[in-house]
Write a structure and sequence with these properties.
The complex is a heterotetramer, with two copies of chain A and two copies of chain C.
Chain A: H1 4-21, H2 47-59, H3 77-90, H4 99-111, H5 114-125, E1 131-134, E2 150-154, E3 157-168, E4 175-181, E5 192-198, E6 204-209, E7 218-229, E8 233-234, H6 240-256, H7 258-261, H8 269-276, H9 287-316, H10 325-347, H11 361-373, H12 383-394
Parallel strand pairs in A: 1-4
Antiparallel strand pairs in A: 2-3, 3-7, 4-5, 5-8, 6-7
Helix pairs in contact in A: 1-3, 4-5, 4-6, 6-10, 8-10, 9-10, 10-11, 10-12
Chain C: H1 5-21, H2 24-31, H3 41-50, H4 68-81, H5 87-101, H6 104-115, E1 121-124, E2 139-141, E3 144-153, E4 160-166, E5 172-178, E6 184-190, E7 196-205, E8 211-212, H7 218-254, E9 256-257, E10 260-261, H8 266-295, H9 300-325, H10 337-349, H11 354-365
Parallel strand pairs in C: 1-4
Antiparallel strand pairs in C: 2-3, 3-7, 4-5, 5-8, 6-7, 9-10
Helix pairs in contact in C: 1-4, 4-7, 4-8, 5-6, 5-7, 7-8, 7-9, 7-10, 8-9, 9-10, 9-11
Classes of the chains: A alpha+beta, C alpha+beta.
Chain lengths: 404, 404, 367, 367
Amino acid sequence: MKNADTAVSFRTEIKSWLQKNCPISQRQPIIQKEQIWGGRNKHFYNDDARHWFEAARDRGFTAPEWPARYGGGGLSADQAAVLREEMQDLGCRPPLYDQGLWMLGPALLVFGTEAQKQRHLPAICRGEIRWAQGYSEPFAGSDLANLQTKAEDDGDFFKVTGSKIWTTRADAADWIFCLVRTDDSGPKQQGISFLLIDLASAGVSIAPIPLLSGDSDFCQTFFDDVRVPKDNLVGELHGGWAVAKEVLRHERQLMASFESMAEKPKLNIIDLFNEHMGNENAYGISSTDIRSRLASHLIRDSAVKQLGNRIAQQHEVQSVDSRLPLLMKYLSTREVQHKNEIILDILGTRGLSLASPDNPELYDSMVKQWAFDKALTIAGGTSEIQLNIIAKRALELPSASTPE
Amino acid sequence: MKNADTAVSFRTEIKSWLQKNCPISQRQPIIQKEQIWGGRNKHFYNDDARHWFEAARDRGFTAPEWPARYGGGGLSADQAAVLREEMQDLGCRPPLYDQGLWMLGPALLVFGTEAQKQRHLPAICRGEIRWAQGYSEPFAGSDLANLQTKAEDDGDFFKVTGSKIWTTRADAADWIFCLVRTDDSGPKQQGISFLLIDLASAGVSIAPIPLLSGDSDFCQTFFDDVRVPKDNLVGELHGGWAVAKEVLRHERQLMASFESMAEKPKLNIIDLFNEHMGNENAYGISSTDIRSRLASHLIRDSAVKQLGNRIAQQHEVQSVDSRLPLLMKYLSTREVQHKNEIILDILGTRGLSLASPDNPELYDSMVKQWAFDKALTIAGGTSEIQLNIIAKRALELPSASTPE
Amino acid sequence: MILTSEQKLFRDSLESFLSSKLPIAALRSLRDASLSTAYDRGVWQQLAALGVSSITVPTTLGGAEFGWLAMGAVAQEMGRRLSPTPLLSSVVLAQGALINCANLDQINHYLPALLNGDEVWAVAFEERAHFSPDSVSTAMTPRGLSGGKCMVLDGASADRVLVSALNADGQSRLCLVKTDALGVKQSPSRLMDGRQYVAYEFSDVPESECDWLAGGASGAGWIQVLNQGMVVLAAEMLGGARELCERTFEYLKEREQFDVKIGSFQALQHRAAHMYSELELSQAAVDAALVGFDSGQGDQCAMASAAKALANECFQLISDEAVQMHGGMGVTDELDIGLFLKRSRVCNQLLGNTHWHRLRYADRAGF
Amino acid sequence: MILTSEQKLFRDSLESFLSSKLPIAALRSLRDASLSTAYDRGVWQQLAALGVSSITVPTTLGGAEFGWLAMGAVAQEMGRRLSPTPLLSSVVLAQGALINCANLDQINHYLPALLNGDEVWAVAFEERAHFSPDSVSTAMTPRGLSGGKCMVLDGASADRVLVSALNADGQSRLCLVKTDALGVKQSPSRLMDGRQYVAYEFSDVPESECDWLAGGASGAGWIQVLNQGMVVLAAEMLGGARELCERTFEYLKEREQFDVKIGSFQALQHRAAHMYSELELSQAAVDAALVGFDSGQGDQCAMASAAKALANECFQLISDEAVQMHGGMGVTDELDIGLFLKRSRVCNQLLGNTHWHRLRYADRAGF
């Protein structure tokens, strides 16, 4: 930061603002049902949540680095870092959860027209519209470019037909940003366009997908001759792949930091270990095995965070080793899965229920998290795709038509 | 076995023959320097070794299943199995070590002319000629068919030029069996021929390759216009690949059973553990880690043997699952390497020397074995090639020009 | 495993019965059934009629004496379909304990109803959240049998339950109690594998309701029953792992991405080959243990622990890989892959986790 | 790691010095040298003149105070070349112990000769075959200092040796002894990494020959010295691992098999990507620990153990993979790959194996 005095006074100001505006209840570890999601059907778990959301919204802190004219906080990267640190320090919950905020917004800032920015960004920052993402398709999977959902030219409109899968909570969202095929004559990464679609449009239907965790956070979204105004095209016609990559970059960052977004267990894993791993059986020292595995996980987990910090510091001094960010998703998602397996082993037969009347809710939610997190190494680019990318871009190994 | 009475009497006869002819000293776990290798420069460690070799040779038991007319024992598969079991039971050492015996002989029985069989097989069984194998080349590696050593037609002779690498103890061998290129106009697996070459021929030179273990069991063998009589061609001209595959099949079986051929440690790994893993340090229970890993190794090692037995039993009832033998080399070589790493960890700083005056020879030899066994997952078809083969032949996964 | 032609015939008939009566859909409907349902008792009676309850029972006791390899083959077929049956709970563990630990009068009295499927039993031997059969604090007091047991497989559907407990002399024995006896309280739950597990609370169950198994070798006999339970469970687990391998390898051959079958990607090929190697390696250990039960040769505890340790690791590896290789579809409840995944984690904890078995193996091997 | 421009300049000058004076060939010739040679002492004096012995020494004591990140960078460069120098033994451990555990008189007396390279020291703290710095039975008796130490790095080339021992009051302290003092016997050996390790036998070394380090915080100070030794060794190990990665990835790009570069095989690509991920993950932990030494922030023991545990696993993985991916050439002594492999296994045992560090980490983390 250029001026150390300014920096110090900015930090002091932020700290006191947070202390004043973020209620104590909003500084507890987040619980899924208390998350603040935006949208037309916005619902606050309690008044404190509403208060925190509204204060952050009015100050532009739902999107601290976005320009103020679009409803953001207008902070510099350095200032935003200070805000993040201070929020982390106090334990402030995110004031708004939204895929528009995390993924669409950053891409609109790069690729959107002025009209699109003015229309959509403030509504995102203010939590007025909740967004879903429409990338994957049943037959595409990792091969994203193989998408089949068609948008045909229909005068001032596109006519969209097809379906998108893994649209997170599309059943609760207002709009969806989609990749659609507008031309299938050339190579498949060409001829794709990026469209914004109002889910209230005629011809849209949505079906939840039951997961192995028993939840249905994901949906399949069907489009049957849905009319979408051409104003809703982001970027060039047939040029949606560039927009998509920008969004994907943000999604992968998101997946890498998924844990910090997710519900925090009420008991940390060390307390869990201490509570449950006594000398439980004839081979009582078998807790040594879990102890060693837990230590290994915590060591690796710290190292993942330290690697993340190193990348952030390199950004600050503008000397970025561009290979390092490629590693984050692969490493961090693996580690979350390791942790979950250790939790199952600590809990033993106490922890085998996804929902049971006599099992403390706490354990059930841990097991649900285990099941849910199985998707972390798949969604947002499988670990296999990540390894392909590392091999190609970081190690520059010769191509064998390895996909990414 | 058809006739149970015959079987019983055969077993009795074998047992008493072994007891009479195999001296007690030859029933101890084998030590490398006491192995009996054949050849013109045959050397016996002591008189017991000579006696055991000569008795086995005269009874045809150096090659129990080869026909008696070629110097073998003329035993049926069932009888040979009885012999193996009884030898194992008494702990009898192999009476002869030779690559001719293990690899060339079985291929000659299939592909050799009658004259070749009569000339070479008895000399092998009787330990008169020691053989080396000349397959690999510096630029071929796993891509065996890419070999460059040339054999040019020169009337009644071939003129051989090139070099072979990984020729095990070629410096101590009398003859070598080689793959050479006799035609390079077609696909590379064609145009290869299988030649037997007397290493005493003019133009042959041999240089040992120092290994990371500090030993030099392998050589590079150079051929400079070496004249080889055409009688020494095995199989069809340009048709050596078929012979090579037969040899390779035996080599892989050999690698899978390598451990039983190798020098046995004077201390088994369980005794080693008990001797060394006390409560050695502040985190004294850390021996639990090695205990668990050792148990895991022993469990897997038993299972590898049980899988081998299952394959053998299937052979007996002639209902072979042809996928199973493909797994043996991959699984068994990994397990040997696991064992070696556990040994290093048990020994701690006692076991870090390849040769040191104050380190008991016992530990040095274990560490040497660790270093040497690093080659097990490379030689005779790398583990990667084994996995390719399993994927293709056992699982029938679609080909992606995956080599084997 | 190499079966006799008789054993093969038996397995094949079982296979077709299970395919029609207990496909994976049976497990799915069980998930939504009331907690008191552990399995379809009518189907179980048909299975008993087919001989499933008498596979390893000596002919002298009215059994088929088909041997443990046949038992393993049946368990494997059930594992392939995640069939909810009381094979492990009522046959291998409870009936096994009756035969191994009871006196002849008791056997003659109770066995027929078990063999023909009229009765099903459970065994209550867990008091802690990690397998520890030697930790027994449930005891006969002057006021009756008291204590708590958890993780009783299929407990709420059982007519009687065998309880590991200290008898009046303080010896650890098995005590047979009717599940509707005075002082017996059951709390059933359905774990993530969809199966029923019950916590039992015994409060002063009168001595008159307790029939203590009193065979000569009841200690060693019970250990052997546990060994057999471990190996039959391991066989069932490998059935699941094998089914997953087959489904996953098929998927690799069918699914296209980037214009090629994903099974042509070498990284997936190597992982698939590794899965298959681990499967057959574990199968060899399980088969060896089954053969060991039939022959009585070898260290039965060591072989059982080897089998369960490998089955744990194998099923966990293969179910993880199956989910990952199926991609997004792998984490949905539409495919059955997730059902196997969840079953694998429950099986890991049942009858000893990997580390427990490794340490027991080490004990047996003398280090 | 993010170095200041001053630190970078220093590292770069070191790098070019090491490349010309201590390439891997230096280690190869050391292997064949007499057992009394641990490193080239002339080269070490040049390194000392370049400032290698004073990197982390406060300017008030005549040091450069360049910080631990710079020390890590130097260790990494030495690790890349397997450079035989007494950086770990004489600078990080011995000189570090002097500064951390001695009183000011002792520091002023001894430090200058160490800084300018005139003297080199060793530290003798191991009595067992597995790292256990708390096991100290060497002790000052009425007849003098007696006991045995093993695995003393570079011990036979040292002028003095710091011995962990019980003083006359039974307290565990460090005692400085000249290596040619009465009653000191050395048995050097060369381990498989080509480096010199010495067993010491102390038999009634007279009190007059013993100078006990007597600073205020000698207990905590010594633990911190060990932490620093662990992390500098970890940095050196990652230097080796990084060199192996680069060599292996180059080989994958050059070597052809089956008419294509072997680096185009996806199975190898994924393993290479995994190696690289593990390398950078471990590097992050090592850098964090180095930063921790400079800042004094954080649990120093926990960070040191995290760094060493990861470096152990990382170097072992990468050296195994490097050998395997180099195929037949990987197991020859012609390439340097095997030298790194052997170094990795020695480093694994030095200053604590993975499991030891995991358990220490758990202790610190409170579980």
